[in-house]
Amino acid sequence: MAYYPTRLKTRQTYSWVGKPLLDHELRYHTYKEMSVKIEGGLTEIHIQVGQFVLIEGDDDENPYVAKLVELFEDDSEPHSKKRARVQWFIRFCEVPVSKRHLLGRKPAAQEIFWYDYPACNSNISAETIIDHVQVVALGPDEVIPVDLKNEQTLFVKLSWNEKTFRPLSPELFAEFDQPQEGSPRCQKPVGAKTKGLGSPTWTTAEHVIKRIESRHSNSKSRRTPSHPVTPKAKKRLELSSNTRISQQNSGALLDSPGRSKRKVAFSEITSPTKRSQPDGLHTSSPALKAPQKTGEIQSSCAKEDKKASPDCHRILRTRVPALKTTEISEERTLTPLRGGRKSSAVPSMVLKPENIKKRETEEPEAQDETTSTPHRIRRKNSLLTMNRIRQQLRFLGNSKSDQEDDEFLPAAEISDSGSEEEETSTPPLPRRTSSRVSKNLCSSVKSSFQTPSQTPQKTPKPSTPRHATPQIRSRNLAAQEPASMLEEARLRLHVSAVPESLPCRELEFQNIYNFVESKLLDRSGGCMYISGVPGTGKTATVHEVVRCLQQAAQANDVPPFQYIEVNGMKLTEPHQVYVQILQKLTGQKATANHAAELLAKRFLTRRSSPETTVLLVDELDLLWTQKQDVMYNLFDWPTHREARLVVLTIANTMDLPERIMMNRVSSRLGLTRMSFQPYTHSQLQQILVCRLKHVKAFEDDAIQLVARKVAALSGDARRCLDICRRATEICEFSCQKPDSPGLVTVAHLLQAVDEMFSSSYITAIKNSSVLEQSFLRAILAEFRRSGLEEATFQQVYSQHVALCRMEGLPYPTMSETMAVCSHLGSCRLLLVEPSRNDLLLRVRLNVSQDDVLYALKD
Amino acid sequence: MSSRKSKSNNLIHAEYLSQVQRILRERFCHQSPHSNLFGVQVQYKHLIELLKRTAIHGESNSVLIIGPRGSGKTMLINHALKELMEVEEVSENVLQVHLNGLLQINDKIALKEITRQLNLENVVGDKVFGSFAENLSFLLEALKRGDRSSSCPVIFILDEFDLFAHHKNQTLLYNLFDISQSAQTPLAVIGLTCRLDILELLEKRVKSRFSHRQIHLMNSFGFPQYLKIFKEQLSLPAEFPDKIFTEKWNENVQCLTEDRSVREVLQKHFNVSKNLRSLHMLLMLALNRVTTSHPFVTAADLMEANQLCSMDSKANIVHGLSVLEICLIIAMKHLNDIYEEEPFNFQMVYNEFQKFVQRKAHSVYNFEKPVVMKAFEHLQQLELIRPMERTSVNTQREYQLMKLLLDNTQIMNALQKYPNCPTDVRQWATSSLSWL
Question: Where is this protein chiefly located (chain A) (predicted)?
Fold first, then answer.
C-alpha cells in the first residue's frame, strides 16, 4: 500500500523560492520554484515548475497526480495567493466504472493516464501540493515493469480524454522525454519520435455513447478495487515538463477566479470522469529537488555524494541554466527512453547549500520525532541512499549513454532495497496511526479551509458524491473582528463560543470522565444514559470529556480510542445510524442493512488489535422504532467483550428507558444514569460571569436579573445567553454615540426579556382593524349568550351585525366578515375550522377572554 | 387643423396613460423592494443590523418575523436584503437560500432545494443526486466544515415558516438552528410567518436552539397614515417623462385625498382591513377605469371599486337564480325559522313550496316534482345548501338532510335587489304566515 504522508500530520508552510518573474500579459508574478517547509523545520521540499507533483485529494492513499506547469501569485484570491497551474493525470480508479472496459486490459498497479481534457480546471492552490513524484512515459508496445517495487514511480502509457484511451501522441511523448526544465515558457523542439506513434490503441471500442452517469454507479465503482496487476516493463521514460499543454490550457484557466470557478466545476460535473491526478511519488524526502534539473552540475558532486555518510548531503542549487537546454534536448533525442530511467527509479534528493549544516543539526531531532511520524523518517533514510545513487547514475547517463544499461542494474537493486525498506516500515504501523489520521482529518480540512477556493478548484471533477467536497464556498472578505467592548461581549456570549471550561458541570464532568476512562483502562465496554432538559450542557459536557480524554490518550495516560458521534436529529430515519457509524468508523459506505451487518461483524468478532470506540448517541429518543432493533443493537454491542465499545446516550427525559424501551433494551442499557438538572440562577450567573471574564459590558445587577429570570422560566443556558446578546444590541442601539456605548443595564435586559417572552396576542389585537375588533367582541358576546366556548360563524355573524349597527358602522357583508374571520384565524387569534364549512364553521378563541377584553378596553 | 392637433394630443395622452397603468400596476401587483416601508423603521433596523452582523462579522443568528398576512414581512426582508447586497463588501460574500413552506413540503424536497441553491458539489445541472439521507449528511458536513471567520455566511429565508414546523421530527429546523448555535458556517435563519403561536409549534429541542428573537409587524398605523400611504401609492414618481402630466396627475391625487367621499370610502376600507394588499386591490380596480376619455381617477371610481370589493358574493349568486330556486330558498328559510336551524330534506322543502303555490301563489307555476328536484340539486351544486353527511347510496335523495348556507339577512337583502321578483313571492319571504 502506498501511503503518502499528506499534510495531515504536520502543518506546512509554503514559500516561493527565487525572484518573481512578472508576467506582462497575465499581470501576476510567476515563480519557478516553491519550497514547502514542514513544521518543525526539519524538512523542506522544493518543488519546481515542470516537475510531477502529488496533489492533496480525497483519498490519502491515492493523491492526485499532476504535472506542475506554472507557479504564480494571484492577488485576486484573497486567501490563497499561491496558485499553480497543472496538467492532470488520472488514475485508473478514477476512470468511471462504465468506461473502464475501454482499456481492454487490466491496468497496471502504478499506471496512470495523461488526462487529455481541456475543460478540466487546472488552476489549483499551490498549497495543496504534497510532494513530487516520478512519472515515466512508456511507448505503446512497452510493458510496464513488473518487478519494480518502487511504488513511487508511476507510468504513463495512454492518454484518456473521457471517451477513449489513446496512446500518447508523439508531441506528448517528446515532452515526457525532455529532462525537466525550469521555465515553462521555454519551447522545446519536438525531436523525439516514439515507436508507437499512430499504432492502434488498446481500447477495443473507440466510440462509446457518451452519457452522464449517475453518481451512484460512480461511487460504487470507486469502491471496486483496482486490479493490482504488477507491471512488467523494461524501459521507462523520464517525464519532463510539457510546456505546450500548459500554454494551451492557460488561456482557459486564466478566467477562473471568482464565480466562474463554480461554472467550471459545473461543466465538469456533467462529464463524470474528469479526474486528473498528480502522479504518485515518494514524498518525505527533505528538500527534494527535481532530479533532472540539476543535470550536469551534479555530476561532479555525485561521486562524492555516493561515498559520503548518509547525513552529509551535497547541495546543489537547481536553478536551471538556460544554456543547458540545447544540450539536454539533444541528449533527449539521443536516448529518449533511457535518460530518465534511473532518476525515475530513484528519487533525487538535493539539499540547498544553506541547509547543510542546519540539516545536520536537525537530524537528531528528526530521530526523536520518529514516534510521531515514524515512517516518514524511515523513508527519508532510504531516500538518502537512493538519492546518492541516483545522482551518480544521472551523471553517468548524461555523459555516456552507453553505460546506462550497466548502471541500471545496481540502481534497480538499490531502489528495490530502498522500497523494501520502506515496505517493511509500513506494515508495522499500528492501526492506530491510520485511525488517528482519519480523526485528524477534520483539522486538516480546517486548515485547508483557510486557503479558500482551493478545494473547489482542486477537485473540479466530483463525478461521484463521494468525491464531492461538502463545503460552503468561503468568504472573500475576512470576517471583521469585534471592535467595541459590546461586540466582544456579544461574541463571547454567542452559544457557539466555546468557553475554556464548563462551569457548574464539574461533578457531571467528573462522573462521565471516570466512567469512560475506567472503560478505556479496563478495555471493556459499557453504556451510559444521560438525560436533562434542553440547554443544560449535556452534549457540551460530553464533548469536553472526550476532548480531555483525547489529550490524555496523546499523553499515553489512557489507551487510544476512536470517537464517533451521531445525532438522532441529524438522521432521516433511525436505521441510518448504522450507515453513519460505519462511515465514521471505517469510511465505508453501505446501505443501512448492510452497514448493520458489517458493524455487528466488527463488534462481535475478535479483532487483532482492537482499540476502544467511544460512541456518542445524541437525541436517543429519535432512534425509536417499532421493533427497537436500533436501540437494541446499540446497547447490545457494548456487552460483548470483543467490541470494546463505550456508548454514551443523551436524551431529554429522565424516564425514557422505562417509558419507551422494551425490557430487553432497557436492561442492556444498564443502570448507569446521569441526569443534568436545569441550571439554577446562581449557576447561570456563574456561567455568564465566566464568559464575560475580562469584558466589562454588563452591570452586575443586570447579570443577576437575567440569571434569575431564566432560572425561573426554564434553566436553559442558551436562553440566558441569547437574552444577554440581545441586550447588548439594545444597549448599542439606544446609545446613539457609538464610541461610548456604556454598560448594559437592567433596563436593557428587561426590554430584551420582554421582546422574547411577552405574548404578542394583545398587541396583535390592539393593532387589528375596527371590523376585526368588533368581530372579536361579537364572539365574546356570543359566548356569553350561549355559555359555551364555541360558536358557529353564523351565530357570531348575527351578533356582529348587531354590534356594528350599535356602533354606527356600515353594515358588514357576509364576505367581508368571512374575510375578517379567516384573517384572525390565520394569525391564530381564533381557532377556526376549514372555511369550506362556510356558515357552519365553528369558531373558538385562542386567547383567554380576559386578554381580549383587556386588549379591547380602550 | 385643431382636430388633428387634439388627435395627436390624444395619442400622447394615450401613451402616458399606458405608462401610468404600467407603473402603478407594477407597484400594486409586485412586491417590489423599491417601494417605501411604512412605519416599520424599528423592525427594519433590527433586521438589517442582524443581517449585517452575520454578513460582516460571521455571527450566526436566527429570527422570526411575525405578522398578519399583508403586513409587509416579505417586503421587509426583501428591502433588508437589497440594502445588504448594496454594501460592496457583502454582496460577493453572502449566499442566500430561499425556501417556502408551500413549495418545500417536506425535508427531502427542502434539502434538495438548499443544495441546489447553495450550488454544492453534488449538484448536476438542476438535479441533486443522492438519497435523502445522503443529501442530509452531505449538507450537514458541508455546513459543519465552515467556521465563523473563513466561510461564506448563508442567509436562510424560510417563508411560511409554520409549515416547516410540521415536517417530520422538524429535522430541517433542528439542524438549521443547531448550526446557528454552534461554531460552524455562519447562518442567519429568518423565518416568516403569520402565526402568533409559532413558538408553541416548535419541538422543545428545536425551541431551545432558536434564539427567540422575534420581529413583529403589526400594521400599527392609524387612518391619517393610511391616507398618506394611499396618496403615495397612487402618485406618479418624479421620473415620469412628462412633467406636466405628472403634475396634473398628482394634483388630482391630492384632491382625492381631500375629497370627503373618498375619505369615507377609505375609512370604510380601513375599518375592514389594514392590509395594504386590500388597498392595492381597491386602487387597482379604480385604476382600471382610467382611459383616454377618462384620464384621471375620480371619487366615483373609488366608490365603485369599494362596492366591488365589499360585495357579498353569495348575494350575487342569488341574483342569478330562477324564481323557482328563489322560492325554494324562501321555503328553506321558513323551515329554519320553524325548526330552529334544524336540518331539512327535499321533501320538507317541497311540501313548504307546495303549500305556498296552492294557497297563495298566482304568479308561480306549480312545477312537477322532478323539476323542483332539479332546482334543488342546482342549489346544492352552487353550495347554497349543503348535505349534512356524505351522500351514500342508501339514502334517497329526497330525504337527505341538508343545511342552508345563507343567512336570513342575506336572503332578504338579495331579494330586494332581485330583478322582477313577483310580489307574492316577496310577501311570502317576509312572512311565512302571509297566506293565512
Answer: nucleus
